[in-house]
Amino acid sequence: MTLDLEKTVVETAYARWAPIYDAVCGPVMVMGRRAAAEAARAVGGKILEVGVGTGLSFDDYDASTEITGIDMSEPMLEKARTKMASGRYPWVKNVMQMDAHQMTFPDATFDCVVAQFVITLVANPEQVLSECVRVVKPGGKIILVNHLYSEIGVAAAVERWAAKRTRKLGLRPEFPFARLQAWAQSNDKATLVERRKVAPFGIYTLVCFQRTEAALVA
Ligand SMILES: C[S@@+](CC[C@H](N)C(=O)[O-])C[C@H]1O[C@@H](n2cnc3c(N)ncnc32)[C@H](O)[C@@H]1O
């Protein structure tokens, strides 16, 4: 397996992506985003979007939700703030610059945490997942959507070939599902509750964890 991406590489990459991100990544990833937001809307309430980027997902929520977004890339957030200023997204309460490895929110702040196309490119995915569990309420959901490593066949070979070549672009096509599963198995704070391919082509996978309910004290 290749190394995780370094924070500085990701920061540089997304500063470059910001001006063209919506045009390039908007249509390509729209079905993944919609699937994740639909699952989050089913939970409702206070939703944290980790790695909110330029706010492309704002269209996928509604007034039944209250969205907070974080991202470490200020150039990406500037685009999100411009969308907020349009007045079209009153359900988006705030977006702020913050590293997902060390969030400043108190424990159990959100009903649901969503990370769309983020977990494969953070410097320490397990630490970010543990932070997501910390800030979601007991019983709350953590919903990820991403392209994950295909494991076998031609697609897997292409992804291994592309792995080193796309790092500087802040992309990571060879990240395996097994790593997310291993994280869930290694802690008692979250359970893997769903893993499904997203229609129509199954390029993206939606993965959902649920924070374990706090034990009742007799
Ligand atoms: C591929 S973009 C996805 C953006 C958005 N979720 C979407 O679906 O369009 C990945 C985003 O994650 C952000 N990101 C990467 N590592 C991060 C970290 N450690 N903390 C916060 N945001 C991070 C990047 O700056 C970038 O905006």
Give an overview in words.
By secondary structure, the chain is α/β, with parallel strands linked by helices. It has a single domain, classed as Rossmann fold, CATH 3.40.50. Helices cover 36% and strands 24% of the residues. Strands 3-2-1-4-5-7-6 form a seven-stranded mixed beta sheet, sandwiched between helices. It is globular and about 45 Å long. S-adenosylmethionine (SAM) binds next to helix 1, helix 2 and strand 2.
Keywords:
single chain; 218 residues; alpha/beta; Rossmann fold; seven-stranded mixed beta sheet; 6 helices; binds S-adenosylmethionine
Strand portion: 15-25%
Helix content range? 25-40%
Rounded to the nearest angstrom, the radius of gyration is 17 Å
Structural class assignment: alpha/beta
Q: How would you describe the shape?
A: globular
Listed once per kind, the bound small molecules are: S-adenosylmethionine
Largest sheet: 7 strands, mixed
Main sheet strand line-up: 3-2-1-4-5-7-6
CATH class reads Alpha Beta
